[in-house]
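Reopening: structure tokens for the adenosine-5'-triphosphate complex, inputs below.
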Amino acid sequence: MDAYEKIYQLYHLIKTKTAADLPGPYKVGVDLGTADVVLVVTDESGNPVAGSMRWASVVKDGLVVDFRGAMVIVEKLKAEVEAIMGITLDKGATAIPPGTVGRNALACGHVIAGAGLEPVCQVDEPVAAAKALDISHGIVVDIGGGTTGIAVLKNGELVFTADEPTGGTHVSLVLAGAYKIPFEEAEILKRDPARHRKIMPVILPVIEKMATVVKNMLAGYDEFNEYPVYVVGGTAYLQGFETEFGKAFGRKVHVPPHPLLVTPLGIAMFG
Ligand code: ATP
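Re-run output (same inputs, fresh job):
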């Protein structure tokens, strides 16, 4: 299965609440995000076996702010996937935005440990995304709910990472302000593809700001100018995002299918 087939397969398994008939041992990854929590199981080769996700507000700007809430959600996702697969999951990997340090960096591990998964590894989110996309040479931009992180890979080695607190939450805040609606309503409006064409003019400045943030992160690194650029994270679902982000960034960018699932799939591959 190539990288995109794996992503489509994971989406299908989550949507149908089913498991792929693949033999173990299995790897588990948990993505504790600003907007959602995703648990993914893969086989040894990184083929998706099962997964589950929930919208949640337990993380802010990449940091766990509701420890107990996060733990309860991971417990539920774990129980759901265990029921689907008919086995017990006992360990897993987590990820953090690049540059997260100290106790904040430890929090994700504590959350999954509290939910019954021994933490085996903690990776940078865009590094996990690069793994899922099977990229050994290129720039991965991960635009989540609260943060925009990048990872640059050269010959399979991670040579640069950076992170900024700008993400889909800011898109929703702008929509909430423009339409004078609560944030939660703006989130729902934003996730409706039928409304994307209409909201694009309102949110375009935020997308342009994100592209500028990434451009600034890479300023002075001319050697990366020819590297392919992949954008993942839920914000990249916005119709027209690929074109508008690319225009503002000044380079062609690629958005894989189901961009929200790329990082969680990659985290599991480290499990
Ligand atoms: P972070 O990595 O910053 O902690 P996260 O892991 O929660 O956040 P993702 O799950 O990649 O980030 O993306 C969540 C963001 O994507 C949210 O802002 C959410 O509103 C947005 N999003 C999700 N689905 C869609 C959609 N269909 N259209 C537009 N935006 C979407």
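The chain has a mean pLDDT of 92. Residues 31, 33-36, 59, 62, 125, 144-147, 167-169, 187, 190-191, 233-235, 237-238, 260 surround adenosine-5'-triphosphate (CB under 6 Å). Marking as resolved unless the reporter disagrees.
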